[in-house]
Amino acid sequence: MTTHCLRSVCTTIVIQRNLPPEEKMKPFMTTALVCLFAFSSATLAATPEATAEFKQKKESAEKEYTEARLKCDAMKGHPKDVCIAEAKAARIHIVSNAKATLLNTEKARAKSAKEIANADFALAKAMCGSQVGNDKDVCIKKADAVRIAAIANASAVKKANDARSEASSDKQDANYEVALEKCNALVGTAKDMCVSAAKTKFKKM
After folding, report:
1. Which end of the chain is more exposed for a tag (fewer CB within 10 A), N or C?
2. Per-position DSSP letters for 87-134, written without gaps between them
3. 130: nearest Cα among 85, 66, 191, 170
4. Close Cβ partners of 184 (under 8 Å, ≥ 6 residues apart)
5. pLDDT digits (tens, 9 = 90+) for 68-127
6. What is the pTM of this model?
7. Three-state SS for 14?
8. 167-177 pLDDT per residue, tens
């Protein structure tokens, strides 16, 4: 899943070229959010292997960015601005998603979503630069609306997952209290063993 998401980021950038500027962010952000929160239910520890994988992805993204910037430097004017914004957005997508996966927290995923939304907005804004007057203003306004919606969606997902986690914790605490109450019907060693078993089962050690 991780590899697929990272590849889809770059693929999405390519296929957006023929879309209107204000529309190009939508599939890009959808891809980003799907990838970003695909790991929300997984339990991934920041193992040495995971850290090394993150470092490799970051270094690869930086290398690709440097290569892309060299191509951009050969351009001029508006095409150059768009080229640079695309390179930056691609790098941020890869690095932010990888870091969110490494840290595996709701806070990290929400932060990554915000970084990606801002990068996509910068790209869309650069694309709007080919227009003038009111058309340009409308283009930028639409792009900003997409950015705000993406951040709001990420925030909503974070709140929902936080609430789900809190509810699960409350349920476990309630079941632990029930187990302890059952232990109260016992005495001596039997009670001690019952309490110990309950603590182990509900991770209250």
Report:
1. C
2. HHHHHHHHHHHHHHHHH--HHHHHHHHHHHHHHHHHHHHHHHTTS-HH
3. 85
4. 191
5. 999 999 999 999 999 999 999 999 999 999 999 999 888 888 899 999 999 999 999 999
6. 0.58
7. helix
8. 777 788 888 88
